[in-house]
Amino acid sequence: MEPIISVRGLGKTYAGGFTALKNVDLEIRRGEIFALLGPNGAGKTTLISIVCGIVNPTAGRVSASGFDIQRDYRMARSEIGLVPQELATDSFESVWATVNFSRGLFGKAPDPAYIEKLLRQLSLWEKKDSRIMSLSGGMKRRVMIAKALSHEPSILFLDEPTAGVDVELRQDMWDMVRGLRESGVTIILTTHYIEEAEEMADRVGVINRGELVLVEDKHTLMQKMGEKELSLHLPEPLQTVPEILADLPLTLSADGSQLVYRFDIKSSDTGIAELLRRLNDANIDFRDLHTRESSLEEIFVGLVKGARQEQQAQLTKETQE
């Protein structure tokens, strides 16, 4: 199936010489939720801005629904809805008026039935006559999404969609995004909340210092790069890890009450059997145990740290040469 967004060799260097993106290649599948992760200044917003036609690239090509974003700007832009992080709305307008106006900006004929359906879907129908200035932050965020969807785009960009939203509203927002995907909208979100990507995304992209470090199916990524921890709760605290266990990947908790064993979930031999045998030989009992897989956050931090170390090593090599 042809990707709904195709990015090829994308680069962006600003007038001052700062390179925000370096040779980025990315394909986003129709109907998926794609999460773009990266620290501040990594290039997330620049990438989104180029795809949405707000910023011109220095190099490369981008198409949306088969339309080149530079050659076929109007057609490409009509396929895209963008919800920026900032809550920029017409404060004195009613919800109904501002969403209708946004539809008209794309040359779409009035369609009250569609606008009503959209506002109901976003739980805004009861607020349709309210001035936006009177709404809560969470409701304003919903209005921004309604504006972005008013012209019936096939692609929706959400830039930090739950920033400043409380936990309860964040869960509502996640449910709403899933509903949009089920209605056929492809969703690309940037987020600082790792649990947001872990909860919602089908695939994850990690960008760091303008380079796309990795794009992977979320579950495959966690399976490939995750570790598991086996925590053994001890009946009596230990001062140090016993010598008979010293060569194993074990750590002792600060209070000495737990031994934590880390192992690779991909490995055919986890070493747990050997660990239990040695514990028995050392007469070390445990009263409980449980396992925990690495979270997406831990994997993300490890990827970014690894990319930085690689870049630093390359820089050192070039300096020495």
UniProtKB/TrEMBL annotation:
<keyword id="KW-0067">ATP-binding</keyword>
<dbReference type="InterPro" id="IPR003593">
    <property type="entry name" value="AAA+_ATPase"/>
</dbReference>
<dbReference type="InterPro" id="IPR050763">
    <property type="entry name" value="ABC_transporter_ATP-binding"/>
</dbReference>
<dbReference type="InterPro" id="IPR027417">
    <property type="entry name" value="P-loop_NTPase"/>
</dbReference>
<dbReference type="GO" id="GO:0005524">
    <property type="term" value="F:ATP binding"/>
</dbReference>
<protein>
    <submittedName>
        <fullName>ABC-2 type transport system ATP-binding protein</fullName>
    </submittedName>
</protein>
<keyword id="KW-0547">Nucleotide-binding</keyword>
<dbReference type="InterPro" id="IPR003439">
    <property type="entry name" value="ABC_transporter-like_ATP-bd"/>
</dbReference>
<feature type="domain" description="ABC transporter">
    <location>
        <begin position="5"/>
        <end position="234"/>
    </location>
</feature>
<keyword id="KW-0813">Transport</keyword>
<dbReference type="InterPro" id="IPR017871">
    <property type="entry name" value="ABC_transporter-like_CS"/>
</dbReference>
<dbReference type="GO" id="GO:0016887">
    <property type="term" value="F:ATP hydrolysis activity"/>
</dbReference>
<dbReference type="Pfam" id="PF00005">
    <property type="entry name" value="ABC_tran"/>
</dbReference>
